Structure formats: C-alpha cells, structure tokens
Amino acid sequence: MQKSPMTLEEKAGTRMIRENRLERFENRTRHRDYTIRFTCPEFTCLCPKTGFPDFATLQIDYQPGAWCVELKSLKLHINGFRDQGIFHEDVANRVCDELVALLEPKYLRVFADFTVRGNIHTTVTAVHGKPNPEAL
Amino acid sequence: MQKSPMTLEEKAGTRMIRENRLERFENRTRHRDYTIRFTCPEFTCLCPKTGFPDFATLQIDYQPGAWCVELKSLKLHINGFRDQGIFHEDVANRVCDELVALLEPKYLRVFADFTVRGNIHTTVTAVHGKPNPEAL
Amino acid sequence: MQKSPMTLEEKAGTRMIRENRLERFENRTRHRDYTIRFTCPEFTCLCPKTGFPDFATLQIDYQPGAWCVELKSLKLHINGFRDQGIFHEDVANRVCDELVALLEPKYLRVFADFTVRGNIHTTVTAVHGKPNPEAL
Amino acid sequence: MQKSPMTLEEKAGTRMIRENRLERFENRTRHRDYTIRFTCPEFTCLCPKTGFPDFATLQIDYQPGAWCVELKSLKLHINGFRDQGIFHEDVANRVCDELVALLEPKYLRVFADFTVRGNIHTTVTAVHGKPNPEAL
Amino acid sequence: MQKSPMTLEEKAGTRMIRENRLERFENRTRHRDYTIRFTCPEFTCLCPKTGFPDFATLQIDYQPGAWCVELKSLKLHINGFRDQGIFHEDVANRVCDELVALLEPKYLRVFADFTVRGNIHTTVTAVHGKPNPEAL
Amino acid sequence: MQKSPMTLEEKAGTRMIRENRLERFENRTRHRDYTIRFTCPEFTCLCPKTGFPDFATLQIDYQPGAWCVELKSLKLHINGFRDQGIFHEDVANRVCDELVALLEPKYLRVFADFTVRGNIHTTVTAVHGKPNPEAL
Amino acid sequence: MQKSPMTLEEKAGTRMIRENRLERFENRTRHRDYTIRFTCPEFTCLCPKTGFPDFATLQIDYQPGAWCVELKSLKLHINGFRDQGIFHEDVANRVCDELVALLEPKYLRVFADFTVRGNIHTTVTAVHGKPNPEAL
Amino acid sequence: MQKSPMTLEEKAGTRMIRENRLERFENRTRHRDYTIRFTCPEFTCLCPKTGFPDFATLQIDYQPGAWCVELKSLKLHINGFRDQGIFHEDVANRVCDELVALLEPKYLRVFADFTVRGNIHTTVTAVHGKPNPEAL
Amino acid sequence: MQKSPMTLEEKAGTRMIRENRLERFENRTRHRDYTIRFTCPEFTCLCPKTGFPDFATLQIDYQPGAWCVELKSLKLHINGFRDQGIFHEDVANRVCDELVALLEPKYLRVFADFTVRGNIHTTVTAVHGKPNPEAL
Amino acid sequence: MQKSPMTLEEKAGTRMIRENRLERFENRTRHRDYTIRFTCPEFTCLCPKTGFPDFATLQIDYQPGAWCVELKSLKLHINGFRDQGIFHEDVANRVCDELVALLEPKYLRVFADFTVRGNIHTTVTAVHGKPNPEAL
After folding, report:
1. Would you tell me how many other CB atoms lie within 10 Å of the CB of residue C13?
2. Residue A104 exposed, middle or buried by CB count within 10 Å (0-12, 13-18, 19+)
3. Residue D38 — left, alpha, or beta (φ > 0 → left; ψ -120 to 50 → alpha)?
4. Which site in A74, E78, H127, J97 is 20 to 30 Å from H118, CA atoms measured?
5. Is the pLDDT of residue E47 over 60?
C-alpha cells in the first residue's frame, strides 16, 4: 500500500484532539438527582506490549453533583486515546479517575466493552460512589 | 431546493400546537397504585448553541395521585418543543418539572434517549418521588 | 365496500362471547405458591369518545389462592371487550378488579400494552397484593 | 362483566367508518414508476362460520397509474371489516379487487398475515399486474 | 409550557440550513461502477394539510456518473425540509428529482420510511435509471 | 489527560504493520469456483479534510483465480490505514484496486460500512468482475 | 412417574385425529393466481429406527388450482403423525404427495425444519410444480 | 393418510422411555452452592379433557444438596409425558414435586412455557425452597 | 491444571469417530428434486501452521441423485476433523469433494463459517453442480 | 476421510497449550473494587463416559483482590481442556477452583453454557465470594 506521508499536525481535528482538555459546566438542575449516560462506540487505543490497535465501546453513567461534563470535550478526550498505549483493565479505571477528578460526581460508572482478542471477549466495569437508585 | 413560503399559522395543527396547554383529568382508580408509561418517539428540538435540530425518544412513567395527564394535550406539548432551543440535560428535567407541577404524582420518571451527536449517544433520566415497587 | 348484513346473533361464537361468564376451578396445588402468566395479544375495544377501535396485548400474572381462572372463559371474556367503550387507563384496572373478585388471589398483575395513538405508545400496569418473590 | 349498552351510532368514529368510501387522488409523479407500501397492523374481522374474531396485518404495495389511494379513507376502510364475516383466503383477494377497481394501478399486491388459529399461522398473498422491477 | 421567543436566524446552524445548496464533487473512480448508500434517520417535515410534523428515515442509493454528492450539503439539505409542507408520496420523488438534476447519476433510488399515521406505516420508493447489478 | 510520549516504532506490532506487504498464496482448489468472505470490523482511518478518525467494517468477497490472499497480511494491511487520510468513497475503491492487482480474481467485491457522520450512515460497494452465481 | 392408564380412545380430540381425512373446498378466486402459506410449529412423529420422538415445524406454500385445503382437517392431519414412524427426509415428501393428490395445485412447497439430532439441525424442502413468481 | 400399524413396543427408544426411572448421582462439589439449568424444548403431553396434544418448553433450575439428577434419565422422563393427560397448571407442579422427592435440593424451580391455545400463551412457574442468591 | 492422562482409545465414542466411514442410503423419493440442509455448529479442527484449534459452523445443502447421506455417519465424520490440521479455505472444499464422491448429487453446497481469527471473520462457500431452483 | 498423521507435538501452539500455566499479575487499581468479565466461546472437552466432544461458552466474572489473571495464559488454559474428559457439572466448578486458588479474588463467578445434548440445553453457574454490588 502506498502510504502518502500526511502531515497530521496541520489538520484542525488532529490539533483539537491534541490540545483538548476535559471541560465541565455547572449543573443546572440541583433540586433533584438524575442520571446521564454516554455511549461512545469509537474508542481505540494501542496495546502497550505489542503496539497493535485495540477497540472498545465505552459506556459512562453519572449522577452529577455541582458539575456536568461538556460533551464535545469528552468526544475529543476519547479521540485522544488513539495513540496511547494502555491495557484493557486500565482503560475503565483511568477514565473513571479522570471524570471523578473533574466532576466530583455523586456516582460515576465506566463500562468498557472490548472487541475479541485471543478468542476472548473482555469487559471492565469501574464505579465511583453509590447511585441514588431512585434516579437511575 | 425551492422552499415555498408556507404560511404556517394558517394550518390547524400548527395553531393547536401553539395554543396547547397540558391538561389533566381525575384519576378514576384511587383504590390502588398503578403505573402508566408513555413512549414518544417523535421528540425534536433545537440545539441552543447552533440552532441545529436534535431528536429523541421520551419515555414517561408515572404512578398517579389525584390526576392523570390527558394524552392529546401531551402529544401537542411534545410537538411544541420543535422550535425551542434546549440542551440535552435539560429536556428530561423540564418535562419532569412540568408534569410534576400539573399532576402532583406519587412517582414520575422521564427518560430521554437522543440520537448520536459527536459520535456519542446520550440519555438522561430524571425522577420525582419513589415508586410503589409493587405497582411497577 | 359491499357490506353484507350478517346476522351476528346466529353464530355460535358470537353467542358464546355474549353469554360467557368468567369461571374458576379449585387450585390443585395448595402446598406451594406458584405463578401463572397469560399473554393475550388479541384484545380490542372501542374508544369511548370517538368509537374508533383500540388494540392491546394483555399480560396477566397471578399467584393463586384457593382458585384458578378457567382458560376458555378468560378467552371469551377478553373477546367480550370488542364492542365495549373503555379508556386505556381503565382496561388494566377493570380486568384486575374482575379477576380479584373472582379468584381472591394472593397476587395479581395486569399489564396492558396498547398500539400507538397520537404518535404515543401507552402501557398501563395494575397490581393487587404482593407477590411471593420466591415463586415468581 | 357488566356490559353497558353503548349506542355506537352516536360516536363520530363509528359513523365515519360506516359512511366511508375509499377515495383516490391524482398521481402527482407521472414521469416515473414508483412504489408505495402501506402496513396496517390493526385489521380484524369475524369468522363467517363461528363469529369469532380474527386478526391480521395487511401489507399493501402498489405502483400507481393515474391514481393514488387517499390514506385516511384506506384506514377507515380497514376499520370497516371489524363486523364483517370473511374467510382468510378471501381477505387478501377482496382488498386486492377493491383497490384495483379504484386505482387501476400498474401493479398491486396485498399480503395478509393472520394470527394463529388451530395451531397454524396462515398468510395469503394476492397480486394484480407485474411490477416494474426497477422501481421496487 | 413557557415558550421563550428564540431568534432562530441568529444561530449559525439555522443560517447554514437556510443558505445551503446541494453540492457535488467529481467522481474520483471512473474506471468502475460502484454504489453509495446514505441512510438518514432524521428527516422531518410538515403535513401540508394540517401543519403537524411528519418523521421519516431516508435511504438514498446511487451509482455515480461524473459526479458525487457532497455529504455535508446533503445533511443540511435534509435539515431544510423541517419547515416545509410536503406529502408522503412526494418526499421520495422530490429528493429523487433534485439529486438526479444535480448528479446525472447512472442509477439513483430514494426510499422514504415514515412513522405511523392513522395506524398505518407508509414507505415510498422512487428510482431513476437501471442499476448495474454487478455493482450493487 | 497525561499523554505519555510512547515511542511507537519500538513495538513489534507497530513495525509489523508498517513493514507489511499484502501476500498471496496459490489457490489449492482450481477444479471449482468458490467464494471466500472476510468481515473486518476494526477498520479505522482519518478524514483527509479534518484529521478526525473514521471507523468502518469492511466486507470482502472474492472468487479466486490462481491466487488467494494470506489472512495475516490482510489483517496488517487493514491496520495500516489507521494513520492514512482517505475519503469514504475511496476506501472501498482503493482496497478493491489493491486486491485485484494482487490476486487477479475472477470476482471481488468490497463493501465498506462507516459509522454515522453528520447524522448520516454511509456505505460504499465496489465490485470487480462478475461472480459465478452458482458459487456464491 | 406414575403413569395413569388413560383410555385415549374415549377423548373427542383423539377420535377426531384418528378419523380425520384431509378435506378440500372450491377455490373462490379463480381470476388470479395467489399464494397461501401455512406455518405449523407443532409437528411431531417417531423415529422409525428407535421409536424416539422427533419434532419439526412445517411450512406449506401453495398456489391453488380448483381446490383449497380446509384448515381444520390440515391441523388434524398434522396431529395424526404423532404415533407414526417416519424419517426426516420422508416427512416433507409425504406431506407434499398427499396435498398434491388432494388439491392438484399449480404449485406446492413443503419445508420441514427439525430440531437438533446428533448435534445437527436438518431441514428438507420438497416442491411440486413451478410457482407463478408474480403471485408469490 | 395411510397409517401403517407400527408395533411401537418393539422399538428400543419406546421401551427405554416406558421403563425409565429418574436417576440421581452424588453431588461432587459440596464445598459451594451452585446452580444447574436445563432447558428442554421438546415437552409434549395430552389435554386431559380433549386428548389433543399440548407442547411446551420446560426450564429447570436447581441448587443441589447431596444429589444431582442424571441427564439421560431426565430426558427420558420428559419423553414419558407424551401419552399422559395433564393440565397446564399441573405440569410445572408435578415435575417440581418429582424432582424435589428425588434430589432434596436446596432450591428448585420449574418454568413451563406452553404454545398458544385459545389465542392465549400460558406459562407456569413452580418453586421449591429459596435460592442462595450469590450462586445464581 | 492437573491433566489426567485419559486413555482415549478406550472410550466408545472415540473409537466410533476413528473407525467411522461416511455412509449413504438409497434416495426414497426419485420422482422429484428436493433439498436437504444440514447445519453443524460443532466443527473444530487444528491450524496446520500453529496447531491452535479452529472452530466453525458447517452448512451443507444438497439435492440428491440416487443417494442420501446417513446422518449419524455424517456427525461422526465431522467429529473426525478434531485432530486434523486443515486450512480455512480447504475445509469447505474437502467436505464438498468427499460428499460429491459419496453421493454423486445433482447439487451440493458447503458453507463454512469460522470464528474470528486476527480480528477477521472468514466464511468459505464451495458448490458442486447447479441446483434445480424450483426445489430450493 | 483420509486422515493424514499429523505430528501434533511439533506445532508451536500445541506445545504452548501443553506447557501453559495460568499466570497472574498485580492489580494496578487497588483504590476501588471493579469487575472484569471474560467471555470464551471456544471451550471444548470430552465426555468422560463416551469420549464424544462437548462444546460450551464460558463466562468468567471477577472482582480482583491483589491479583489479575493474565489473558493469554487464560486462553491457553481453556484450550487445554480439549483432550480432557470432564462432566458438565464439573467444568464450571473446576475453573472456579483454579482461578480462586490463583487469584484469591474478592468475588468470582463461572457460567458454563453447553450446546444441546439429549435434546436438553444445560448451563452451570459456580460462584466464590460475594460481589460488591456497587461495582458490578
């Protein structure tokens, strides 16, 4: 395959992903607990041992405290794993840690569902806090 | 595309949506708790930042107290979001607030399931009160 | 459409539906709680306001006490709603009341799942008593 | 069950169904063949032998000539079978005959899919004319 | 519902939809026939009689000649039907006419799948030209 | 997110992807036509305009002549698109051209099914030669 | 298990199955070809070698000539295989022969879909005549 | 249908079903609770009133005490209902009683899911003991 | 894992698989073409390069000439691949060759559907002869 | 079938499976409970009585303590059952015992779902410890 040397840094999207920081905004509904779920089917990263690509769907549920995560910065953050080396077990835990630090949510759960490797299908679930079950 | 200038105000449906008020009727079965679920796949509104259309399915569950919501006025109310600017997180919370104010229900839950934006699928769940679990 | 005047009263099925009474028989297994579920996809009635037909699937679960409902009389009873005017909210509650009066069950639940009207899909759940959760 | 004697003739919907006639309008796109499909899940009629109700989903496909069928009159026409006695084999053929007489279509197909009777699930397919396969 | 008067014209997305023109680019693969399919689940327009909203999924297949349609302009074009009054039968035919005029394709097919109205589910299929069956 | 500078070139998988060349082996069954289908759900590349990632499933069908494609080299070849900028319309056509040049097959078809962009789901189908229909 | 000696011959259903003969009635729609499909999920017979029960779903399609098969006699006929010894390959062919002899149809197809035996799922398809493809 | 008089008693399978007794073996894993589920889609019996055949899928869950049921004897036991007359409500309860007497399990549940009769789909669930929820 | 040295040759099933020869019997229905389909989800073999196990579902369709394949010998034959080294492309072709030599069928098709290897899902379809399309 | 005598011991995969030992690595996320699920659809072993092959999907869930299981050694361990004789009831319990001994997890569950034998579908669930329900 003829691989044309593309100067990636010149593309706007590439720069937006590189410069992105997760952003938050104030929760506009403080008088009740409620739950937000994001399903992100386009997660990809690299195996830290081999450099081969891995693929997953991330599902993020949270019950906000004072803050909500801004959707576009979340999308770019997920795009940002593309060239990172990270193990299956750590993907859910790292995204969980990052969002807990940003949002201080009442409850947050990250579910990472990877494609088959070694004939085995792996999922990892990391949770912070206890949900208000009435608000699920 | 040739966009014929349609005088919307002259159509009956357009006027019904504009003039609609959510209506209630008396709960005819007061001797037990029971649950009503409405699934409304035709919700659409506008993004307050960009003006682009958003689409969602709303699912509304409630256990009535003294009042039930009238179905046709609910349909027109949902139609009425078509030209409103409102964020994903606020749709479920606003519909929840409106129906709680109208119905004073024992329990009410609004689940809003939006189509994909930024490669991410978002849902929001807002709940008022605790359900009688025997009646779910 | 040429509508041939059919003298309905002369048909056996029509008469069986008209003359039917819900019947019960003695529960033959009194030494344990157990659960019976009937799913009836052929419920139809009329809208009391407009006279237009409505359609639903009824799901009936119960844990019998001294009595069980006889299946054929239940089928004919459901057939009997065909020419009745009754609101969505009342279908589940009326069937629940009728079966509770007949069977004095330990637990009975009626779930009515209607076809779309006004772009909205409605279900109603009415429950009598508390189930023995071990026997569900 | 207490069967309140409802004076059906007084309801608007009942009268609309009784007085309905299938209507047609001029095909606005004569420069190409195209295909319209209607799926009608709420067909019910009576068994001519027994008077028991039958239920079906009708699927109607056609490639219009000079005329198209008006949707609301079609809905009311299907409602009009509710009190008619008609055999499974005849439902698809009668609807096909009626629409061919009304529309003189280039192609018309009626597929009737009945619920189980005698442990057997029956479908009947009646077709008029040959479709333009490029336009299916 | 409190309907805040939003000045729609000031939003960027609203203006982009209003000012959009369908755009084309040169087909880069002229040495073979091939097929492109777009599925657009977010089509909405207004009923010309009543002003009530209608919803559909559009599926567009074509085999390009000299030109391909630009994806973003297609998205904005579909957004542009939101305030148009147009009948079910005409949606597929108008989109077909517009794309044929723009692209002069070897083959183009528009399939419009509407949500239920009057208890009936309608689809319309309009086709221009004959496909190269080897390239489907 | 703390982005550790990973020296990708040092990983074995990264090097294998970079150095990979599509390989072929002799067809061991020349006395009949037969069909091989590969489904590859882990295709990703970059948008040439924006640098944002795109995702697709590729389905490749072929009827071999003298040669078959070696599976591992095909996997690495698909991995190799990860950092390439390429348009949707061109993915199917380029993979088709590459495999036709390598294999000189009797028939080859590439179907690329992309994830949603701009609310639209796109697929592209490119075909070389005519299949022996008996062997599909 | 206590096996109460049930005198089967005394039951009405048992006698109806034993005495049943397949019946036909005149085709009421001779002016067009049309297709009837019966799906019968409750077929059971015995393995002629072992006496163990076998289970299948039968699907029967036909385009009638002068005669149609009467539904209730077909149901009883299928019930009548319960105590017969017959091989998988012969079920579809025998039912096909029987219905062809009774109906002299333009086209008739029997598809028998058996449950797993020896870790293998078997189906058999027997066909008489050629269908009018326009009427399928 | 020509019904060849098959001397059933001479077949090995017929004799095995007639002579079968449910068998048990010692539970080899006594240091923990665990759950076994059998799904048996080939249950058939006779209606005690009419002699017509009934069909069901049985699902059996249990947490063993000292004994486990031997699979082949269970299969033959289920085959043994073929010529028994038994009501829907009693099938689950009788199988439950038989297995409780044989196995003295910590927990046992029988779920019987019958095919449609009288347009109604019936299931019956009988349970003995309480499950260890950690071991489900 | 403690791997007890099991003397496989002493088991009846192991010997039956080793000694099995594909068997045929005379086609009892020569007066029409018909089709038999076997679906075998329990195929496993070894990769000739690595010795790692591969898994597939085989689907075999044929229209018999003078002979039919005996089901039990086919099951044992498929079991016999368990310790064979064979490539994906060759599985379908070898089974096709073997059955053609045994049966001299009018038409035979083998479809092998393998589990994912190298993130790619592979199927292979080998066909002998042309089917009678009326009998499919 | 011509069974070429393949010297299995010479293959790398065969040797890796034979020499494999389950391996563990340190849990990198000790500050929270989390759950890992592996789904392994390629389990096969032999029936200890007959020597015939059995097939299952294994699902393993655990909440790690100090250790996690290494994925590749798990895959090879599952491959290692291929020539072992082991009963259905014991598969889940043995894998559970092995992983508990290796990992000393807070919670571990093995669910084994076997293909049909004797017309019955069997699953077995073995569990060690109690899960932290917040982390499921």
Report:
1. 17
2. middle
3. beta
4. H127
5. yes
pLDDT confidence bin for D3, thresholds 50/70/90: very low
The CA distances from residue D111 to C42, D108, E93, in Å, are 20, 10, 25
**Three-class SS of residue I113?**
strand
Whether B97 sits among the annotated catalytic residues: the reply is no
The contacts of residue B28 (CB under 8 Å, 6+ apart) are C87, C89, C90, C93
Return the structure tokens found at G11: 């039951």
Q: Which sequence positions of F are flagged as catalytic?
A: 47, 54
Question: What distance in Å separates the CA atoms of residue I68 and residue I66, rounded to the nearest whole number?
Answer: 7
Q: Exposed/middle/buried for H31, CB within 10 Å: 0-12, 13-18, 19+? A: exposed
CB contact under 8 A, A119 and I119: no
Of D122, D72, D134, D74, the C-alpha closest to D102 is: D74
B–F CB contacts, 8 A cutoff, strictly below: 5
As a whole number of angstroms, the distance between CA E37 and CA E28 comes to: 17
Q: How are beta strands D34-46 and D53-63 bridged, if at all? A: antiparallel
Which has the closest alpha carbon to J18: I3, F14, D1? I3
What's the mean pLDDT in D45-68?
Answer: 97
Q: Tally the C-alpha atoms within 13 A of residue A82's C-alpha that lie toward its C-beta.
A: 21
Q: Which residue in J116, J120, J121 has the most chain G C-beta atoms within 10 A of its own C-beta, making it the best mutation to test that interface?
A: J116
Q: Which residues, 6 or more positions from H97, have their beta carbon under 8 angstroms from its beta carbon?
A: none
Q: Complex ipTM, two decimals?
A: 0.91
**D33 interaction partners in chain E (CB closer than 8 Å):** 127
Sign of the CA dihedral running E127, E131, E135, E136? positive
Residue B28 has pLDDT above 50, yes or no: yes
Length of chain G: 136
Share of chain J above pLDDT 90, in %: 90
Give the pLDDT band of residue H134 (cuts 50, 70, 90).
confident
Question: Are the beta carbons of B115 and F119 separated by less than 8 Å?
Answer: yes
Q: Are E47 and E36 in contact (CB under 8 A)?
A: no
Element at G77 (helix H, strand E):
helix G71-79
Q: How far apart are CA H85 and CA G9, in angstroms?
A: 12
D76: amino acid identity, one letter: L
Position A10 scores a pLDDT of: 67
J2 pLDDT exceeds 50? Answer: no
Residue E109 CB contacts under 8 Å (≥ 6 apart), including other chains:
E60, E61, E62, E96, E125, E126, E127, E128, E131
Beta bridge partners, I110, equal I60, I126
Task: List pLDDT tens digits, range J81-103.
Answer: 999 999 999 999 999 999 999 99
CA dist., res. E108 & res. E127, Å (int): 6
Q: Which residue has the higher pLDDT, I17 or D1?
A: I17
Lowest mean pLDDT among C57-66, G76-85, H48-57, I6-15: I6-15
Contact of H118 with C75, CB cutoff 8 Å = yes
d(CA J85, CA J46): 5
Among the listed residues H45, H54, H61, H96, the single catalytic one is H54
SS3 label, residue G69: strand
CA distances in angstroms from E78 to E18, F7, F114, I115, listed in the order given: 11, 45, 19, 40
Q: pLDDT (tens digit, 9 = 90+) per residue, E68-114?
A: 999 999 999 999 999 999 999 999 999 999 999 999 999 999 999 99
Per-residue confidence in pLDDT tens, chain F, 136 aa: 444 444 545 689 999 999 999 999 999 999 999 999 999 999 999 999 999 999 999 999 999 999 999 999 999 999 999 999 999 999 999 999 999 999 999 999 999 999 999 999 999 999 999 999 989 9
User: Distance, in angstroms, between J54 CA and closest chain I CA?
Assistant: 9
What's at G74, amino acid-wise?
Answer: L
